[in-house]
Every structure is written in structure tokens, then in C-alpha cells.
Amino acid sequence: MILAAGRGERMRPLTDRTPKPLLPAGGKPLIVWHVERLVLAGISELVINHAHLGSQIEQALGDGSQFGASIRYSPEHPAALETAGGIAHALHLLGTQPFAVVNGDIWCDYDFLQLHKRAEQLQAGNDTAHLVLVTNPAHHPDGDFGLAEGRITAAAPRLTFSGIGIYQPALFAALDRNRAAPLAPLLCEQIAQGKVSGEHHGGRWVDVGTPQRLAELDNELRASQNTAHA
User: Fold this and answer.
1) Residue 114: CB partners within 8 Å, gap ≥ 6?
2) What is the pLDDT along the chain (230 residues), one digit of tens a residue?
3) Which of 50, 76, 126, 157 could make an SS bond with 54 (beta carbons 3.0 to 4.6 A apart)?
4) How far apart are CA 30 and CA 107, in angstroms?
5) What is the Cα–Cα distance from 208 to 16, expressed in whole angstroms?
6) Is the pTM of this model over 0.90?
7) Nearest-CA neighbor of 53 among 106, 108, 104, 90?
8) d(CA 73, CA 17)
9) Contacts with 34 (C-beta within 8 Å, 6 or more apart), sequence order
10) Alpha-carbon gap, residue 198 to 151, rounded angstroms
11) How far apart are CA 12 and CA 10, in angstroms?
């Protein structure tokens, strides 16, 4: 599942007419980077939620066939349901096995091939979630969660949640599918029970939350493309 329902307030005025996942970086929309890289990793059955200007996302991506994917949509009206609420709303589309969730407003070079193995480990054990953490960016210096020997903890020092995770459907089954709900309290409850595994991705990760960060990412990707073509 790719989360694409956020309003993108900090990205205004760019998001007044374009949903944040469709903003371009390196010559293609942010969400297309995800779709293409997921398909390359053998993950082609995708669910995308949307709210603000969501019809533009459906028009841009269609049924996914142009990318070798099969895309289904989970509209949220009249307003976005936050992360856990959005997942609960789409749960009927996500099946009974562990599923991956990726924030639509990040850019990351995490190897999505790893998701297969992580999902198998989740299915075989008692954990309810697996989170990918990254080094704290300047704008989020205190991080979100601790990591010790492959387990997510509440202890410091903390790393930042990347917006990439794998979850058991049961984690969201009790939520009202039409009510907004944040993800963090749900995760903290599971972390306290020792049911969340994790890893630290040391590669490139950008939370594309402001026009400045979008412009910097765009310049970086274009520069790397120019170098590759030289």
C-alpha cells in the first residue's frame, strides 16, 4: 500500500492544485518512483489511498498496467483518515497476509526486495509489525523509535521512522474503517509488548515535506542522472 491521502499543507502553494505524491522530482512524480521500484522488486499488486485531489492520482496512474502493476484505489471522503485509519479503510483490499506500506511523500533507495523476506519472517513469528528506520534528518533530530538487536524499542537514542513498514492485518482489524486514526499510538502499544522488529537503512532517504526539500531532491536526482548519462 502506498499512502497518498495527505493534504501536504507544508508544500503549499504547490499542493493547492497538485496532490503531493504527484509533485515531480528527477523528472517523474514522487509516487511513480515507488511504483516502478516496487514492480522491479516483484511487488506488483498495489493499493493506493487518496483524498485531496485524489482523482488526479487515479488519472495519472490508471490501473497500473503501464508500469506492469495492478493498482486498486481506496478513496477517503470527505477527508483523509490519517495513517492507521487509511490502512484500516483499505484493509479489505490488502488480503490476509502481511503487507508493506510506503509513505507516498518520501524518496528512498531502500531495497524493496528485502520486503519479501521481512514479510515471511513476520508471518512465521509473533510480531505484528516490522519498521524501517533511518538516521535522523536535521529537521527531526530526536527521532521516533529506538533499535536494539533487530527489535524496535522506546529507548533513546532514537532513529527516525522512514515511512516504510510491514504489518499484520490483525493490527488494524479493530479500528473503525471510517474514522481517522494515527499510527504511532498503535505502534507504541505493540512495541511495549515486544512485538515489533526493525532495521536501520543507512542509504538515501528524504522526507519531501517542504518545497525546499523537493527542489533539493530534484536537483540531486537530475545531477545523478546527468552523471549516469555522461
Assistant:
1) 199
2) 999 998 878 888 888 899 999 999 999 999 999 999 999 999 999 999 999 899 999 999 999 999 999 999 999 988 899 999 999 999 999 999 999 999 999 999 999 999 999 999 998 999 999 999 999 999 999 999 999 999 999 998 999 999 999 999 999 999 999 999 999 999 999 999 999 999 999 999 999 989 999 999 999 999 988 776 55
3) 50
4) 7
5) 16
6) yes
7) 104
8) 20
9) 2, 102, 104
10) 5
11) 6
Q: Cell numbers of 193, please?
A: 509488548
Q: Grid coordinates 503487507 are at which residue?
A: 99
Q: Which residues pair with 90 in a beta bridge?
A: none
In this structure, the dihedral spanned by the alpha carbons of residues 141, 202, 208 and 78, taken in order and rounded to 10 degrees, is -90
Closest CA to 165 of 191, 140, 139, 141: 191
Domains and CATH numbers, the chain: 2-225 (3.90.550.10)
Spell out where the chain has E strands.
Answer: 2-4, 24-25, 28-29, 45-50, 70-75, 99-103, 106-108, 129-134, 146-148, 151-153, 160-167, 196-201, 205-207
The residues, any chain, with a CB within 8 Å of residue 85's CB and separated by 6 or more, are 76, 175, 176, 177, 179, 180, 181, 182
CA–CA dist 174, 222 (Å, integer): 44
Which residues, other chains included, contact 120 with Cβ-Cβ below 8 Å and sequence gap of 6+? none
CB-based contact 214:106 (threshold 8 Å): no
> What are 188's three cell numbers?
507504541
What does the block give as the cell for 216? 533539493
